[in-house]
Amino acid sequence: MSIAKKEYKRITVKSLMEMKMAGEKIAMLTAYDYTMAKIVDNAGIDIILVGDSASNVMAGYETTLPITLDNMIYHASSVVRAISRSLVVVDLPFGSYQGNSKQALDSAIRIMKESGGHAVKLEGGSEVAESISRILTAGIPVMGHLGLMPQSIYKFGTYTVRAKEEEEAKKLKEDAKLLEELGCFAIVLEKVPAKLAKEVAESLKIPVIGIGAGSGVDGQVLVTHDMLGMTHEFNPRFLRRYLDLYAEMTSAFHRYIDDVKSLDFPNEREQY
Ligand code: KIV
Questions:
Q1: Statement to judge: residues 191 and 256 lie in one domain
Q2: Do 264 and 227 share a structural domain?
Q3: Could you list the residue range(s) of the whole structural domain that residue 269 is in?
């Protein structure tokens, strides 16, 4: 289905609010490097998230905990150099904001100053309220992140759906309201029941972007390497694969190896 949408030369936090009000869904994807970010930006994505999922996707760690602030700044600055339209949101990594609000502000300032990103994202609700307020006082836009929070994986114990029970759902709704009141410009809701996510999105003025949170929210985010099928060992129900790049790339690498071994590459036209 094609939807009439306003053309934006550059996406800002204000554009996202307008999209929510106009009922236009927000499309967000991750990128961690220049080349991928250029393709994603040129394709017209609204938000590029330099996610701490770089810890898994780029560095091969099992969790998002090991990635550092320096690593995030490196990835984010590569992405910023590539983009001309998307809003670039950068994750504050584990350990860079949980200490206190001064630490959170210092980390957010480093991201903005050293990478050129446009906003930061951090995980948590009331526990990080003071940090969010302090970052916002410096004029840095903040995106919240509730539901499954991978930086708390050792507290949760699993990556399964969150807030299925009434008590956790109630806390999530209160936290979402609080994040809006504090001044966050959007919230990511990860892996929560679709009915709850829809209720949260409908109760807030700011956009709610879902991942594994159903269709009743204001936008969707996926990890680009997953939706392109570059990763193949990660198969959650919410993931739609648009390509099987793992197979495509493997086939290309096989053909290249065969061509080199058989002296087919380079040929006459491919040399000087
Ligand atoms: O780091 C990340 O990629 C994320 C998304 C899963 C929302 O936080």
A1: no
A2: no
A3: 244-272
- Considering the domain architecture, whether residues 234 and 250 belong to the same structural domain is answered as no
Beta bridge partners of 122: 144
Q: Do residues 228 and 251 share a domain? A: no
In this prediction, the residues of the chain whose per-residue pLDDT falls under 70 are: 1-4
Does residue 217 lie within any of the structural domains? yes
Check 190, 233, 268, 270 and give the catalytic one: 190
Q: How many domains does the chain have?
A: 2
Angle made by CA atoms 179, 114, 61, in degrees to the nearest 5: 70
| 266 upstream amide cis, omega within 30 of 0 | yes
Structure tokens at 242: 């648009």
Query: What is the position in ligand 1's atom list of the atom closest to the CA of 64?
Result: 1
Which residues does residue 107 pair with via DSSP β-bridges, in sequence order?
none
190 assigned to active site = yes
Please state the atom number of ligand 1 nearest to the C-alpha of residue 28: 7
| Tens-place pLDDT, residues 212-264 | 999 999 999 999 999 999 998 889 999 999 999 999 999 999 999 999 999 99
* 137 in the same domain as 262: no
Atom of ligand 1 nearest to the CA of 30: 3
- Residue 52 Cα to ligand 1 midpoint, Å, equals 6
Tell me the whole-structure pTM to 2 decimals: 0.97
- Output the ligand 1 site: residues, CB below 6 A: 30, 49, 51-53, 91, 188, 190, 211, 221, 223
* In a shared domain, residues 225 and 251: no
93 to 41, 116, 152: CA distances (angstroms): 23, 17, 12
Residue 241: which of 233, 198, 45 has the closest Cα? 233
